[in-house]
Amino acid sequence: MQFRQQALAKLQSPEELDLPVRFARPQGWLVLCVTVVVVAAASVWAVTGSVASTVGASAILTHGEGSYILQSPVAGQVTAVVAQEGARLPANSPVLKVRTADGDAVVRTVAAGRITALAATIGQIIQTGANVAAVEKVARAADPLYATVYVPAESAAAIPANAAVDLTVSSVPTQTYGVLRGRVKAVDRSAESAQQIAAFLGDSQLGEQFTKKGRPVAVLVKLDKSARTKSGYKWSSVDGPPFALTSMTMASASIRLADQRPLDWLLP
How far apart are CA 12 and CA 35, in angstroms? Predict the structure, then answer.
């Protein structure tokens, strides 16, 4: 009781009313100022700044029109394989000779192109509609290469026109020669099935490979050209690889998406 009375008396004493009151230590003011500056800078960055993002996907180097699977219009036994893999043939060129019940027949190319695979051998019995060859639709050796990137369907809508693309080519050592440069030329708006991809690439296994995680959207990438490189295309290194690129080469792509403001992430 005695201590309580002493405390009350001290509070009521007018002798200490003129003493200054300390609201905060100097260290506290410093922390407060730093916090205000950081919050203000973050607010400005959220409104005026931008953040770049990318989407990665599997890709393959092709010519613009793709390939087709050549099927036999007749059933019988293969007596001769006229074409060779890698040969560039005009339309209606002979590929196989087949002995049928009605006599000998010739299986011919549907459109001009390069034979990328032959599935028939001499002596083989084939049925009508059997796959006998894969033909890439390219008429001239100088026709440019493109990259076809198979992007997950949920990411395709965010890809802007002319977006920058970096391609890591499987046949090119990245640490030595860097990545291949390109720009988005077109984005399909519908997802493709394994059958559609196989028809375009002329390879059923690739159709299955590109659809393992669902039906993707095809993105056509135009490769940046360069007169100073052996490949004829632009690389992140100065000279790029000392050899030419070939179609049907696998790659992985990194496509740059449209820049976003950090504030957009907070808004509904």
Answer: 39
| Spatial separation of the C-alpha atoms in residues 68 and 133, rounded to whole Å | 9
- CA-CA distance, 249 to 171, in Å (whole number)? 7
Burial 201-221 (b: 16+ CB within 10 A, else e): bbbbebbebbbeeebbbbbbb
Q: Which residue has the higher pLDDT, 259 or 93?
A: 93
Distance CA 134, CA 80 (A): 17
Backbone angles phi, psi at 78, to 5 degrees: -70, 120
What residues form DSSP beta bridges with 219? 149, 187
DSSP 60-91: EEEETT-EEEEE-SS-EEEEEE-S-TT-EE-T
Q: Give the three-class secondary structure for 174.
A: helix
Distance (Å, whole) CA 242 – CA 240: 7
Distance, first Cα to last Cα, the chain: 62
φ/ψ (deg, to 5) at 111: -135, 160
Given a contact cutoff of 8 angstroms between Cβ atoms, the answer to whether 135 and 116 are in contact is: yes
Residue 139 carries which side chain, given as an amino acid letter? A
pLDDT tens per residue across span 184-216: 999 998 999 999 998 888 888 899 999 998 999
For 44, list phi and psi in degrees, rounded to 5: -65, -45
Laid out side by side, the sheet with 76-81 consists of 103-108, 94-100, 76-81, 125-126
Joined tokens for residue 68:
């087709």
The model's pLDDT over 108-121, given as tens digits with 9 standing for 90+, comes to: 999 888 898 898 89
